[in-house]
Design goal:
single chain; mainly alpha; 17 helices; 81% helix
Amino acid sequence: MSTPEHGGYHAHVRRAEALTNLGRAEQALQQARAAIGLDPGGYDGWLEAARALLDLGRPEEALEHVDKGIACRPRSVWAWRLRSFVLSRLGRHEEALAAVDHALSVQPGEAASLRRRARCLWALQRGDEALAQIHLAIAAEPDNAEGHGFLSDLCHARRMTEQGLAAARRAAELAPGLAWPLHCLGDALERAGQLEESAQAFLQAVRSDPAHPYGKRRLVVVVEELVGKAAPAFRALSTLAVVALLGGAAALSVLTESALICPGLILAALVHPVSLAVRQGQVKRRLDRRDPGIWKLYRQVKRAASAASKQAASSLR
């Protein structure tokens, strides 16, 4: 039967965990320290404090807290896996691998530890082993989105575009509504050249987590890739523009006398604004058919980025 103090300990630990998951690390650290004050021998109070410290950018302190948690419960798989994560954050990848190997010696085949081990191997530039390890992790827990997401990243690094896209799609299916699998999918679609689908994925990510900057930044990049592609009618527009601006004889001279001048540069300079506007209109119509929110959000993000840039420039004057 637990004492009131011990019940309070667990309440603080649960609050710390929830607050860390919500991104409120300062409050989480307060709750974890309250738990430690009630029971310094409770390992999970130390580990929750470590998680909060890590989110606050204090990995050295986080490692000290993890080690105190391990001293309270030496066979905690979570503690050893968290130690591996903290060591990776510190760039101590060999030690991180040793820590997760210890976790696997306590509980062989545990999927989360296998995923962690794959990341350690990748950080050590042992790509073949990392790929084999993540496949083992997926076999152990097929419905975990993180495993498929990391497989997508590994496939991209090894130029396995189709396999990476399939893994990213699976991650997004397994974790609907979360932003990070949609980031992964958006990136994979872009690499596969499916830019409109990529923009759609990033739009969904922004709607899922409006505060996360990655989805907004990538949405702008992908839409600008679409807009920036040469319009199919570029050559025809170029010819018409030159004829209209210079008159027939002069235009013919520009278009044919390549020994005197580079017509491509002249044409690009003359017609680029027209071509870009046409292309922008084409892209907008196609994206609006998929989801009217894409173009609207793109313009909002562009305006916000422009305002931030002007503010930064004025502060330097």
